[in-house]
């Protein structure tokens, strides 16, 4: 019997990806691709659509730092039936906005049946600041990482949390040019880089599933809003998708002791990424041992193509074509056999001479 076919879908955060760089706009890709594989591993940036989400039983929701550790072979993934989610709230959040997020958590408990612990408020404001690079990619910092880590530790040790949802107060900047471009579906998500910093810190420190929802004041109505950005403006909070994703996010494990259901990087068959964003850690770790499929149509602000860094890949135009490439690979069909012209097989010595020349 063939082993389960496993693919990893990566859309790096904060680099202006045309698909997956906005409010859950890569979820249709995940829904379609999940039908072509047994298991699809991806990260919160791909699955989070604020109040919109689409749980899929064969999709594993893995935070970016954890995904890098998995790709390198250091950590494995252990599927779960349900996590007990600890909610950490930034002390900087105003009372009314805090209540909006607590009500969203209660709604997830009452309407979706999710298991949440009592929440923890950080002992100091986290002090999130946003940054951007010359390339246009975004990142950020937090002034009080110590306060965040103390709150997470309290949620784990005192409340018994097995996954962590964080809500931090992000700066309001409704007049910024970057935000206006993003709302029009043309720019880079100004929050994504800082969100990654927060979740990476927690996962690196505690080896526990984590995702983040920014707390922001509602923006004024914009009738020209891009459909790709619209999910973020449906309500007062981005928390529902985070709670839904974390509810069944796999736990991180080391090789000892291992269980038969654990998933390791040597079980991955295919990796799908934007064609111009191949320099990430997980891509570099996995690309030598799996079928790397790069998607040209998903443009980004990066300029790191597979060939430029010595990686072998099959480049396709669209995710629709990528799904076809996955199906062919899963069936053991060489992609060249699906084209109308197939060159004759050549002697190995001829290839050696050509490469020497």
Structural class: alpha/beta
Which sequence of SSEs, written as H and E, runs from N to C? Answer: EHEHEHEEHEEEEHEHHEHEEHEEHH
Q: How are the strands of the biggest sheet laid out side by side?
A: 3-2-1-13-14-15
What integer is the average pLDDT? 91
Helical percentage: 25-40%
Envelope shape: globular
Strand percentage, roughly?
A: 15-25%
Q: Measure the end-to-end span.
A: 45 Å
Largest sheet: 6 strands, parallel
Q: How many DSSP E strands?
A: 15
Low-pLDDT residue spans: none
As a whole number of angstroms, the C-alpha radius of gyration is 21 Å
Q: Give the count of helical stretches.
A: 11
Describe the 3D structure:
- The chain is an alpha/beta fold and about 350 residues long.
- It has helices at about 25-35, 45, 65-70, 95-110, 145-155, 175-185, 190-205, 240-245, 280-285, 320-330, 350-355; strands at about 5-10, 40, 60, 75-80, 85-90, 115, 120, 130, 140, 165-170, 210-215, 250-255, 270-275, 290-295, 315.
- Strands 3-2-1-13-14-15 form a 6-stranded parallel sheet. Strands 5, 6, 7, 10 and 11 form a 5-stranded parallel sheet that branches.
- Strand 13 (about 270-275), helix 9 and strand 14 (about 290-295) form a beta-alpha-beta unit.
- The radius of gyration is 21 Å and the shape is globular.
- The mean pLDDT is about 90.
In a nutshell, what does this entry contain?
With 357 residues, the chain is an alpha/beta fold.
